[in-house]
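Exercise 7. Predict the structure of Transposase InsH N-terminal domain-containing protein from Lactococcus ileimucosae.
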Amino acid sequence: MIKKRNKDFPRNPYGFYTLEDWVPQDHYLRDIDKYIDFEFIYDLVTPLYGSDTGHQA
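Solution. The predicted structure, encoded as tokens:
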């Protein structure tokens, strides 16, 4: 049976968002980000993921 489409629920529920979209401008995490460079995390986690699938190796 085909159901009538619910107009309150979008047809494509997926979207792309950034932290800029979700973290308010006055949130304390923005203050922390000004003073701490978190780029080192990429070096720590890179060996944990496969290069072909992105999943854990």
